[in-house]
Specification:
By secondary structure, the chain is mainly beta. It has one helix and 19 strands. The relative contact order is 0.14.
């Protein structure tokens, strides 16, 4: 009987010991939270240090992104030429500022991605700006920002409401912009479905299918810019 009780006790101890040695689960990593930008201002003509007749050095600055586990994040700064959509520069940084030499009289867009020590990342908003000309002139309007429907969205109604936001760096001209709307089943869209709109919305009646759309912005001087092209599906 004593031998049986001793064996039973050893089994209980081994069982308890095995349970206690199980490793604790790894804590879940949190993705960084995006933050706001400081300069250059969004939808505006920037300032900077003149390098030559054709170039200007522009300062970029943003607020530090937040992360629960990591106080030191890695930042990827990306800037594009709005007209060509080509990347002008990409920099990997630990700080929250940089300076880039750019062409004068050109529209650019930029954003910042923050990455933590476990490679979780978040990309902030995309801002756009215009570098100044050497002489006083009229700037091109900024490409319209398409707001609805979302790119790749599925729409379940045939009356599709398209919305966007226009902007012009010349003082007082944003309110005077006119918009032409292109909606088509081919990419890029060539069917102009509405012209000379002052409102930043248009409703188009469509049948089921895949559609592409863009907005053409025109200022009082006749300068024109085109938005990105987005796709949506009507079911």
């Amino acid at each position: 009987m004593k031998k049986f009780l001793g064996l039973f006790a050893r089994i209980v101890l081994v069982s308890c010991s095995s349970g206690d040695s199980d490793p604790a689960p790894e804590p879940e990593n949190n993705t960084p939270s995006e933050s706001s930008y400081i300069e250059p201002n969004n939808n505006a003509v920037c300032t900077g240090e003149e390098i030559s007749d054709t170039e200007i050095s522009v300062n970029f600055q943003w607020n530090a992104f937040q992360d629960v586990e990591d106080t030191n994040l890695q930042y990827t700064f990306t800037i594009r030429n709005v007209t060509t959509n080509l990347i002008v520069a990409t920099e990997n940084l630990t700080g929250t500022s940089t300076s880039i030499t750019l062409e004068k009289g050109t529209s650019y867009s930029w954003n910042v991605t923050a990455t933590d020590s476990e490679n979780a990342s978040v990309t902030g908003a995309t801002w756009q700006f215009q570098t100044p000309f050497n002489t006083i002139t009229n700037y091109l309007p900024f490409p319209a920002t398409l707001t609805s429907p979302d790119n790749g969205a599925t729409v379940t109604v045939t009356d599709v409401v398209l919305t966007w936001e226009g902007n012009d760096p010349d003082e007082g001209e944003t309110e005077l912009l006119e918009y032409n709307v292109y909606v088509d089943s081919v990419n890029p869209p060539v069917a102009e479905v509405a012209t000379m709109l002052s409102a930043e919305t248009h409703t188009e009646i469509l049948t089921a299918g895949v559609y592409y759309w863009k907005i053409e912005s025109k200022d009082p001087s006749g300068n024109i810019s085109n938005s990105e092209i987005r796709q949506f599906i009507v079911e």
